[in-house]
Amino acid sequence: MNRIVLPGGTIGVLGSGQLGRMMALAARRMGYRVHTFSPAVDSPTGQVSDRVVTAGYDDLDAIRAFATAVDVVTFEFENVSAAAAAAAADLAPVRPSGAALHITQQRAREKAFLADHGIPVAPFARVETLDELAVALGVVGLPAIVKTAAFGYDGKGQHRIHEIEQADAVWKLLGPQEAIVEGLVDFACEISVVAARGLDGATVTYPAIENQHEHHILDLSIAPARVPEEIAAEAARIACRVMDELQYVGVLCVEFFVTRDRRLLVNEIAPRPHNSGHLTIEACATSQFEQQVRAVCGLPLGDTRMARPAAMVNLLGDLWTDGEPAWETALALPGVALHLYGKTDPRPGRKMGHLTVVGDSVDDVMARARAARAAL
Ligand code: AMP
């Protein structure tokens, strides 16, 4: 189904978090209607949608009814089953496809896909038992990281192993389930490339973004990334290859480690707009969310040029420990943009919002973004 969906049409979003919210805001600005589907009530996406369907992702009848009422279905949450994607695809175009989602939603499949296509990744092995884990640690080497193969994000289900004796205890925490063992990469920095591929196969990439994590959760993103031109260009080429191989339609993000000897290793692929790309809202001609709308609706892709350097800091629930943060203090600083996702329960580690600062240099915006958050 190569149908183009023009403004006035309806986009159906499976998932209802902040990514769907920011996409829905971009879609509505462009004249689209947005329906959202998820088990959640009063959700970030639901609050800004024309229609909310509250049902489980395994309720295929509800998925079918949802798909019937929209012109195109997309995801903001990748852990939707292949069966649900297939049920939707019988009734509406699903972009990106269920096949692309199937590969990228599970680490073992994703890593195998990357390795099979000759795309560089850290040494890894797939394991299903404690014995396999012990063997894999010998092959991959120590220190290593063990990650659950399915349904992991933001470092959930990840454990570091420094000594072989730890294998037992880590397997007790994770097992029995399929997992991936990876060599721990001693990286110089982490970067990501947000990219898009249209219905006609055209591809675009945003300038590389540099990311710093705290406790495995993204903390700060700055752009353009402080890496040599050829590294950024190679990362963009890899992102386009990944999209072409997946016959992808939509926005996708590839996260990379840049090793100390200046090699790129792909860490993971997110089949959707990405937290690191939030700064494109203020910094780029077309935000990653407008780009997702354009791509899944079959419109021409937008200009990805970045007018000025930008920095983004995440606002986690921990900031609410002593009550509501002092928004007015941060907003009094010049050039600070506040995004809150409409979540009412600020649990520690939960992404509640972010701040973006645009300015003249990467060092300047990074310092100002951190200062703005500290002022909260
Ligand atoms: P992930 O959920 O796989 O994106 O991991 C979250 C973060 O954990 C990454 O962005 C890295 O900071 C760190 N991490 C994950 N895998 C590795 C690895 N193999 N080597 C070093 N750091 C890692």
Protein topology:
Layout: E1 10-14, H1 18-29, E2 33-38, E3 51-54, H2 60-68, E4 72-75, H3 82-89, H4 98-104, H5 107-116, E5 124-127, H6 130-140, E6 144-148, E7 158-161, H7 167-174, E8 179-183, E9 187-197, E10 203-205, E11 209-214, E12 217-223, H8 229-245, E13 250-259, E14 264-270, H9 280-283, H10 288-297, E15 310-316, H11 327-331, E16 336-340, E17 351-358, H12 362-374
Helix pairs in contact: 1-10, 2-3, 3-4
The chain binds adenosine monophosphate.
Adenosine monophosphate binds at residues 122, 145, 155, 182, 184-185, 190, 213, 216, 255, 267-268.
Describe the protein in words.
This protein has 3 domains: 10-94, Rossmann fold (3-Layer(aba) Sandwich), CATH 3.40.50; 123-183, ATP-grasp fold, A domain (Dna Ligase, domain 1, 2-Layer Sandwich); 187-374, D-amino Acid Aminotransferase, Chain A, domain 1. It is built from 12 helices and 17 strands. It has helices at 18-29, 60-68, 82-89, 98-104, 107-116, 130-140, 167-174, 229-245, 280-283, 288-297, 327-331, 362-374, and strands at residues 10-14, 33-38, 51-54, 72-75, 124-127, 144-148, 158-161, 179-183, 187-197, 203-205, 209-214, 217-223, 250-259, 264-270, 310-316, 336-340, 351-358. The model has no long low-confidence stretch (mean pLDDT 95). The structure holds adenosine monophosphate. Adenosine monophosphate (AMP) binds next to strand 14.
**Architecture (CATH level 2) name of the largest domain:** 2-Layer Sandwich
Shape, per Cα inertia axes: globular
Distance between the termini: 48 Å
Tally of contiguous helical segments: 12
Output the structural class: alpha+beta
What is the chain-wise order of helices and strands? Answer: EHEEHEHHHEHEEHEEEEEHEEHHEHEEH
Assign the CATH topology of the largest domain: D-amino Acid Aminotransferase, Chain A, domain 1
The stretches of 5 or more residues where confidence is low (pLDDT under 50) are none
Helix content: 25-40%
